[in-house]
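Re: that backbone. Tokens:
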């Protein structure tokens, strides 16, 4: 059996990674979402073990010391990390795994897992990016300016990824990612078994 795909969706702050990933998970029930650990406080409506594993800084440090993370990074003053063990287990079983992580984290995973599928989400325009960050409503004017500047700076990192997907609408972006997944499954390098079966037939 071929291994599953490790699909990493990343992008600058405010490009709508979370919304696009939720749409993908709703459309592809077999996709396994890797739940990250974080030291940030749960927001209203978030549950431990569903959106994130909410850890104290001490617990997070213990997970680092015990080598539990595939990657971890500090994002806006909080720590975030991708637990490693379930991911490998699922991939080996042929299941596709989705990571929604920040750019530093994605670059770290890229170095460790070069056969992953790295997708960078882009805003349709800078104006739209500004609106999206503003509309979150969680930003003070200072944090807004900081987030916007750093988001613009982050965009150029996208050139290190394999795929650039403009998030014009959630549905269209999700469709493009589904097309990428379908194409990745057809890669010759992922289909050794097909070739093996068709070139070693008893009927020849
Ligand atoms: P939020 O706190 O808004 O849920 O997420 C803040 C940022 O952390 C987002 O850019 C999100 O993609 C990123 N993030 C979430 N989980 C992880 C993770 O496991 N590792 C890394 N590096 N970033 C993460």
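Recovered sequence:
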């Amino acid at each position: 059996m071929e291994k599953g795909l490790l699909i990493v969706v990343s992008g600058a702050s405010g490009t709508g990674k979370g919304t696009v990933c939720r749409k993908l998970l709703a459309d592809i029930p077999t996709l396994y979402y890797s739940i990250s650990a974080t030291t940030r406080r749960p927001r209203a409506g978030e549950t431990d073990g569903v959106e994130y594993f909410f850890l104290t800084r001490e617990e997070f440090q213990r997970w680092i010391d015990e080598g539990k993370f595939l990657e971890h990074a500090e994002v806006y003053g909080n720590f975030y990390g991708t637990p490693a063990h379930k991911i490998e287990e699922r991939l080996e079983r042929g299941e596709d795994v989705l990571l929604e992580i920040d750019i530093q984290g994605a670059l770290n995973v890229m170095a460790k897992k070069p056969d992953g599928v790295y997708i960078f989400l882009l805003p349709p325009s800078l104006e739209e990016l500004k609106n999206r960050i503003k509309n979150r409503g969680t930003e003070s004017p200072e944090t807004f300016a900081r987030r916007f500047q750093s988001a613009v700076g982050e965009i150029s990192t996208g050139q290190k990824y394999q795929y650039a997907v403009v998030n014009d609408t959630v549905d269209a972006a999700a469709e493009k990612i589904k097309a990428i997944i379908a194409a990745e499954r057809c890669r010759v390098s992922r289909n050794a078994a097909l070739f093996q079966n068709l070139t070693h037939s008893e009927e020849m």
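Helices lie at 17-27, 57-65, 85-92, 103-112, 126-135, 141-155, 170-185, 192-199. The mean pLDDT is 94.
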